Amino acid sequence: MALAVVAAVGMMFLPPIPQNDAYHHFAGESTLPNVLSNLPFIAVGIYGLLGWKRMGWEWRAVSIGAVLIGFGSGYYHAAPSNDSLYWDRLPMTIAFTGVFAAIIHDRTRVRVLVPLIVAGIASVEVWRQTGDLRFYGFIQFFPAIGLPYLLLAFPPREMPNKPLWAMSACYVLAKVLEAGDAPVYEWTGHWVAGHAIKHLAGAAALYFPLRSAGNGTGR
């Protein structure tokens, strides 16, 4: 909690972060790979929902979020704009906050799913209304800081560390691929760009903990 407060206060001292219009331009400007590469999110989400009865509410929320990411991100990439990006980011916050809430509950037995999801949705709405990405950035990146601390400082109860570290590695890979969209496009001979592969890495990141939770852990 102290780490969250410090990060939140630090965020408020940053100047407003506007949405860069260049964000909507992807290497090759081909929409089809970026749309179709979201199908694994839907598959992973459905896979998670098959283990619904063995999951806690946090992992159920993550499964639903994964399905919605597939549709929301596909919709965005079919016609990139700030308006369509809203429907991409909204389900992403459900997945981010659901994962973080699940790990907090597993390690501390504190349930924070509802307030975290509300905060996540609010962060996207704040960006939509003001154009300021600070709150959304906090929701997305603070779990990346808090997760390693939780894994190292608290022993697992039901969800083992291994799938969570695998999830973290895939998430880092996804961010690297996102940043390297154009270089990957060049390296693959203009066959596929980094952003499309990023979607595959992102879906894999959710698969590892959902598989473990669907087997009866992480409740």
Fold and architecture overview:
The chain is mainly alpha-helical. The protein has helices at residues 2-12, 31-36, 39-50, 57-78, 82-108, 113-130, 134-153, 161-179, 181-187, 194-214. It starts with a helix and ends in a 5-residue tail after the last helix. The model has no long low-confidence stretch (mean pLDDT 92).
> Biggest sheet: strands, sense, closure?
none
Rg estimate, integer Å: 17 Å
Q: From N to C, what is the helix and strand string?
A: HHHHHHHHHH
Q: From the helix content, strand content and strand pairing, which structural class follows?
A: mainly alpha
Q: Can you lay out the helices and strands and say which pair or pack?
A:
Blueprint (H helix, E strand, L loop, with lengths): L1 H11 L18 H6 L2 H12 L6 H22 L3 H27 L4 H18 L3 H20 L7 H19 L1 H7 L6 H21 L5
Helix pairs in contact: 1-7, 3-4, 3-10, 4-5, 4-10, 5-6, 5-7, 6-7, 8-10
Compact overview of the structure:
This protein has 219 residues and is an all-alpha fold.
Features:
219 residues, mainly alpha, 10 helices, 74% helix
